[in-house]
Automatic annotation (TrEMBL):
Cited Gene3D superfamilies: YVTN repeat-like/Quinoprotein amine dehydrogenase (2.130.10.10)
First and last residue of the signal peptide: none
Keyword Repeat: yes
Name the record gives this protein: Protein JINGUBANG-like isoform X1
InterPro entries for the chain: JINGUBANG-like (IPR045182), WD40/YVTN_repeat-like_dom_sf (IPR015943), WD40_PAC1 (IPR020472), WD40_repeat_dom_sf (IPR036322), WD40_rpt (IPR001680)
Region named Disordered: 26-46
Keyword Repeat: yes
Keywords: Repeat, WD repeat
Pfam family, one: WD40
Placement of WD repeats on the sequence: 195-236, 237-267, 330-359
PANTHER family named among the record's database cross-references: AND WD40 DOMAIN PROTEIN, PUTATIVE-RELATED (PTHR22844:SF342), F-BOX AND WD40 DOMAIN PROTEIN (PTHR22844)
Origin: domain of life: Eukaryota
Compositionally biased residues, Polar residues: 26-38
């Protein structure tokens, strides 16, 4: 993939490797598909910040660097928004790298190098259980309709059902897909190849709620479609010529896939097509940089793609045409954008430069401003989730718009942040000194 990267791009960053061993042999993931990239497991500090690309479009925005140790008060306010953040919890377990995070109905699930998924209860963010298996490395998590779906390093997906037992939380193991016997019999018989598991490590999971199906993406360049009712594979999509790193699904069932081939592809499901109902509708180029992460706004109006060159490309949905149009790129990270999350009018990005950035989106979707940079991790940030509200009443205010971010890093640390963003339009008549005192007041 070196031909797809610009000379000024940082190293191609990924936590996975191309499958080279037999499917039956457990594979230890590294985080790079490039032999030139140093291992993140030995990162003691935050990587140095590199110079930004010289050519920037009008939509690119930069922001000051804010940390819990510094309070920044710029002399000139760039726009009518201010933000402050606080790390309300930081947890280090002996689980190795944090690879996946999911949140659902007041609970946060985290997956790592270890063989256990940890469960945390909100708002106190206290650990309240674990889901253990013999397999290790929980590389992807998704929770839907009281079921937990977890993809492991052995290429299989484990499923649990969440219930309440006398006021306590309980998870019942339902299945492992695909079942070993089913894909072995299919391979020997030479038929029904869709029942076989991925031939490479799984990288992402997503739920299509409208059609009640589960998608799994893999380094084997395919996306498999699993029917949730019986957990059977009903389709294998030959999606990209290069490994697939991320997938996202819109409310109307449209599927987005991101790949090392520097594109995002858009797929629609047509039930009249028989065995291959998913058809490609459009291919979105990402400026010759491999796409490592995806996020979609709640209304489906904006699609974000984080790339290895540190840029976040975004596309805007035309409300009349229904077509995705390139909107621009957000610049600020110096290394690959490994994870993205969208909440309300904000998008949060986690990067291999060990920082998270919080961007606010204007109503038209075309303009973004970075309002905060979360600093604290000592390794690349691999997983992230965000949701509205605070973890405790002490952080809530009637005049502030707050939300919570959970970040997992390859340094093995899980952090919880509360971000408070205040719209300053109502106080725009204040003097510059009064307004400036509220900007990045930590």
């Amino acid at each position: 993939m070196s031909s797809l990267e610009s000379p000024n791009s940082p190293p191609n960053l990924s936590f996975t490797i191309r499958s080279g061993a037999a499917a039956s042999t457990p594979t230890k993931f590294s985080r790079s598909i490039s032999t030139k990239e140093p291992s993140f497991s030995h990162f003691p500090y935050t990587p140095p910040r590199l110079s930004a690309p010289s050519t920037l479009s009008k939509s690119l925005h930069t922001s000051p660097l804010a940390s819990p140790l510094h309070s920044l008060v710029p002399t000139k306010i760039p726009d009518l928004h201010s933000a402050a953040y606080r790390c309300v919890s930081s947890v280090l377990k002996k689980d190795g790298q944090i690879l996946s995070i999911a949140v659902s109905n007041g609970f946060v699930y985290t997956g790592s190098d270890a063989n256990a998924i940890r469960i945390w209860r909100l708002p106190e963010f206290a650990e309240c259980g674990q889901l253990k298996t013999k397999a290790c490395m929980v590389v992807a998590l998704v929770v839907y309709n009281e079921r937990v779906y977890a993809a492991y390093g052995d290429g299989k997906i484990r499923v649990w059902r969440r219930t309440s037992d006398h006021g306590g939380l309980k998870h019942i193991r339902l299945a492992t897909i695909p079942k070993t016997g089913s894909y072995v019999r299919s391979y020997i018989a030479g038929k029904d190849k869709t029942q076989m598991k991925h031939t490479g490590p799984i990288t992402a999971l997503a739920i299509n709620a409208s059609d009640d199906i589960l998608y799994s993406a893999s380094l084997d360049k395919t996306v498999k479609v699993w029917r949730i009712s019986d957990l059977k594979c009903i389709e294998t999509i030959q999606a990209h010529p290069e490994p697939i790193n991320a997938i996202a699904v819109a409310d109307d069932g449209v599927l987005f896939t991101a790949s090392d081939d520097a594109t995002v592809k858009v797929w629609r499901r047509n039930f009249c097509r028989g065995d291959q109902p998913h058809s490609l509708t459009v291919t979105l180029p990402a400026k010759s940089s491999p796409v490592k992460s995806l996020a979609l706004t709640e209304d489906g109006g904006v699609l974000y793609g984080g790339c290895t060159d540190g840029y976040i490309n975004y596309w805007l949905m035309g409300w009349f045409s229904g077509q995705l149009n390139y909107g621009g790129a957000l610049q600020g990270h110096t290394h690959a954008v490994m994870c993205l999350a969208s909440v309300a009018s904000y998008v949060v990005s986690g990067s291999a430069d060990s920082t998270c950035r919080v961007w606010i989106r204007e109503q038209d979707g075309g303009q973004h401003t970075c309002v905060a940079v979360l600093v604290g991790h000592r390794g690349p940030i691999r997983s992230i989730t965000a949701f509205s509200g605070a973890l405790g009443e002490e952080y809530q205010s009637s005049t502030e718009d707050g939300f919570t971010i959970c970040t997992g890093s390859l340094d093995g640390v899980l952090k919880v942040w509360h971000v408070t963003c205040k719209n300053m339009k109502s106080s725009s008549l204040q003097s510059p000194a009064q307004s400036g005192s509220e900007y990045f007041e930590l």
